[in-house]
Structures are given as structure tokens and as C-alpha cells.
Amino acid sequence: MFETLTKNFTRYVCQNDGENLSNLFSKDGCYHDYIYGNFKGRKNISTMLSDYFHRDGEYFFWEMYDHALENDLGYAKYRFSFISKIPEYRGQKVVVPGIGCFELENNLIKNYSEAVNGGLAMVQLGVNPQKMEKVFLKWLKRSFNDDPNLIKKKL
Q1: In this predicted model, which residue has the larger pLDDT, 8 or 146?
Q2: Domain ranges (residues) in the chain
Q3: For residue range 58-83, what is the model confidence (pLDDT) as tens digits?
Q4: Is 67 helix (H, G, I), strand (E, B) or coil?
Q5: Tens digits of per-residue pLDDT, 18-49?
Q6: What is the predicted pLDDT for the residue at 9?
Q7: pLDDT at residue 65, rounded to an integer
Q8: Which residues contact 76 (CB under 8 A, 6 or more apart)?
Q9: Residue range 133-139: average pLDDT?
Q10: Which residues, including other chains, have CB under 8 Å from residue 25's CB and lie 6 or more apart?
């Protein structure tokens, strides 16, 4: 079941099928995207796909493998690629590995999050180092907001 869910998930993303993607989520489910942030609820998840992913990229490829599922928590490694449509990076190909985390509830996705090095994408695009620093600081702040324990504990 979990492998079928991830296969449908990636297919719907690549095909810009926001309706079917969002229906994989619970009504109040959340897609925590590493680049674009958090999108809660089916309508917002569907909008994220068309208004962010497919606005900025095309020719998506996404496959998940090495699945692990225990109770309602699943992980899968992935390979992801796209061609940029962003004007200053138009035509640049990006390829990144990552890990998807699926928190399930009644066989629907309650939360999807990922561990991916967005810096790899930026280097492939040729993003200016000063712009990278600003983005990395934004991501760091988001990480602290999503998990306040990161700054409370001595690591």
C-alpha cells in the first residue's frame, strides 16, 4: 500500500494533477515543502502544485525507493529532477536526492515532509552566493519555527 501511495504521489506531482495529489491527503493534511514552505489543506496543496512547482519547473521526474513503513510513519528515498522555467535559470536541469517522510492517518497523508539539500539545486542552477545565503537563512528560520527544540537543546 505505501509503495502504491508514493508512486501515485510522485506521478500526480509530475503530471501537475493537483486534484488527485490533494486527495491523497487528509482534509487538514499538510505538505511541508523544503523550498516553498507549508501548504495545509487540500485546496492549498493543489494550488501549490500548479502555482509553484509547475510555474517554476517542467519535465519533472520523481521516483521513490527503499520504502520503510512502521505503523503510520513511512519513509522513502527519492531521486528528483526538473528543468527550470525561472527566467534567470531557464533550461537548467536540476537533479537531487532526498528522503520523503509520510505521516499517515486512515491511509491518507496527514503530513508530508522531506530531507533534501536545496543547496545542491541552487548550485546546479548557478544561483548567486549572496542570494543562496539569504535563502539558507530563511530555511534555517523555518526549521527553527517548525521545531523549536532545535534551538533549545545543546547539540
Answers
A1: 8
A2: 2-148
A3: 999 999 999 999 999 999 999 999 99
A4: strand
A5: 999 999 999 999 999 988 889 999 999 999 99
A6: 97
A7: 97
A8: 2, 6, 64, 65, 66, 67, 68, 99, 100, 102
A9: 87
A10: 31, 42, 45, 108, 109, 110, 112
Measured in degrees and rounded to the nearest 5, phi and psi for residue 100 equal -100, 140
Q: Look-up: residue for cell 495545509?
A: 40
* Strand spans (E) along 34-91: 37-40, 57-70, 73-84
Domain 2-148, architecture per CATH:
Roll (3.10)
Task: Please answer whether residues 80 and 96 qualify as being in contact, where contact means their C-beta atoms are separated by less than 8 angstroms.
Answer: yes
Return the amino acid letter for 10. T
Q: Return all residues near 94 (Cβ < 8 A) that are at least 6 apart.
A: 57, 81, 82, 83, 84, 120, 121, 124, 125
**153 secondary structure, DSSP code:** S
**pLDDT value of residue 153:** 59
Mean pLDDT, the chain, integer: 92
Q: What does the DSSP assignment read for 16-28?
A: T-HHHHHTTEEEE
**CB neighbours (10 Å) of residue 13?**
20
Q: Closest Cα partner for 19 from 43, 54, 53, 41?
A: 43
Reported pTM: 0.86
- Main-chain dihedrals φ then ψ at residue 57, nearest 5 degrees: -145, 165
